[in-house]
Amino acid sequence: MYDQLLFIQQQLKQRNVETALQQFYRLTLEVGVQYYQFYAYNQLLFLTNPQQLPVGTLIHSDCRTRRIPVDINTLQGLEDYSGTISIQFPEALTEEKTIEFIQIIQN
Amino acid sequence: MTDIRYSIIRLEVTQPGQVVEISHKLPSHVNRCTGYLSRHTQGIISGLDLPEIGLLALEFNSRKQLYINDVIEFEASPGIIPLYRDIDIPLINGQLVTGYYLDTRRVDSKALLNKMFAPYKVSIYLRCEYLKTETDVRSTAIHTTATQTAKC
Fold this sequence. Notes:
Chain A is mostly beta strands. Chain A contains one helix and six strands. The longest helix of chain A has 13 residues, at 2-14. Chain B has a four-stranded antiparallel sheet, with no helix packed on it. Chain B has a four-stranded antiparallel sheet with strand order 2-7-4-5, with no helix packed on it. The longest helix of chain B has 18 residues, at 134-151.
C-alpha cells in the first residue's frame, strides 16, 4: 500500500493535479453482474486490486482503458480512471467482487 | 513567423477488442497543436460503412490534459479527403502524447468475430506549429553563405 500511495503522490505532482480530497472508494458488484457503468467526473480513481479481477476484464474510461492480463501485479495495474467508467467482465460474476480504488477529488 | 510540422501516429490492431496504448513523443521544438485527424487506413474490407470500429482518447503534455475523445469509423468508399479538425493545444516542450485506442467492432457471435477478424491500422495525424525565431533564420542564412563559399 505504501508503494501505491507513493506512486500516486508522484503521479499527481508530475501532472500538476491539485487534490481536494484523497480517500478509499469501494465498489461491490453482486453475483450475475457482467457489465457495470458509473461516473467519476472531476476526480481520478486509481484501481488498487487489479489482481483480484478475472483475467480479460475490461475497464474503460474517458482517459484510460485496461484489459486485465494474466500476470498483473498491484503496482502495474495502478492506473487512474476518470469520467464515465465501465467495467466489463468476460463472464457474469459467480461470486461477489469488491473493486477498490483510491479516489482523488480534484480542485 | 510560424512553421508547421505534421506528426503521424500509427496504430495496429491485431485482435478483436484489443486495447492499443499510445505513447508518442512530439518533436521538442513544436509548441502548439492546431489540427487533428484520425481514420482507418488499412486492413478492413467491407462493402458497408461501419459507424464505429473503435474509440480513441488522446492526452497531451504527459497526461496533464485529456483533449480528444473520438469515435473511429470505417468508410467503405472514402470520397473526399477529410479535413483536419481545428484544435488549439499549447504544448510543453518534449512531453508525451498518450492515450489509447480500443477496438469495439461488434458481431453477434464471438466465434464469428474471431473468424472474420483481420488486423487493421488506424492513423492519427497531428498538425503542430512552432514559432520561428530570428536565430533560426540567421542560422539558415549563415549555412547558405557557407555553402556558397565552399562552392567557390
